[in-house]
Amino acid sequence: MCKEKGSPFGAPDVCERYGLAYASLSMAIGTVYFWLYTYNIVRISSKEETSSTGVIDETLVNVQPQEEPPLHSSDNYALEDPPLSNSSITMMVGFFIGTISPLRKLLMDNTLHAIGDTSFMIGDAAIPCKTLILGANLLRGLRGSGIQLTTIMGIVAVRYLFLPLLGVLIVKGAVLAGFVQSHDIFFQFVLLLQYTMPPAASISTVTELFKAGQNECSVIMLWTNVLAPITLTLLCTFFLWLLA
Q: What is the full DSSP assignment across 155-211?
């Protein structure tokens, strides 16, 4: 959008530099928030689901206990909580280095620039890898999960209608309160954009870790991503009109 003719965001090079900074900052904060908050919600929910299922099975099925073979180390892993992903820790380290000018210059401009270049290459490779994982989860969603159509419609309505409208109120309130500069429409646009994106692909990763709700998550991810190009285009147009 920065390179489009007639862009309301000023010079393309300045717009692109600030845009990358805004997007990187929001993704860094979002990743830390996800692995500290959403991860634990799924973990607790999966435990409750497993516990309730075990109680029902014990009540309905009356069999004599049998001696079971000892579990191998790979089987024990399924009974324990999967380890917390290193994504949160890695993002914190990167955020710490990126916000301190001497460390950032040491990795990017000086003798250790090879580390920075390697990080960029790994990051570029991570994007298509994550897309492949997302595609595999969406393929599972095509098979269905028994989730009701009204539930999917409700999630889509909240995701692409009520949440963007709530975002407009929050961002406009931040501008009126002085937390966001009123003349920086590009920053406001990026903030509004956060309320229009489909659910994070990392949610599928967490459901796979805990083996809970994978099919339901795949169906939700499928339809939200199918509708994302349409809703994102309409909402971006609305935001540009609103900020202009």
A: HHHIIIIIHHHHHHHHHHHHHHHTSS-TT-HHHHHHHHHTTTSPPPTHHHHHHHHHT
User: What pLDDT, in 10s, does the model give residues 156-187?
Assistant: 999 999 999 999 999 999 999 999 998 888 99
CA distance 222 to 200: 12
Give me 24's structure tokens.
Answer: 């990187």
Q: What pTM value is reported for the model?
A: 0.71
Q: Which two tokens stand for residue 105?
A: 């210059």
Token pair for residue 224?
């939200």
Query: Which residue's entry shows tokens 């419609």?
Result: 153
Euclidean distance between CA atoms 122 and 116, whole angstroms? 10
Q: Which two tokens stand for residue 29?
A: 């904060």
- Judge whether 207 and 39 are in contact, CB under 8 Å: no
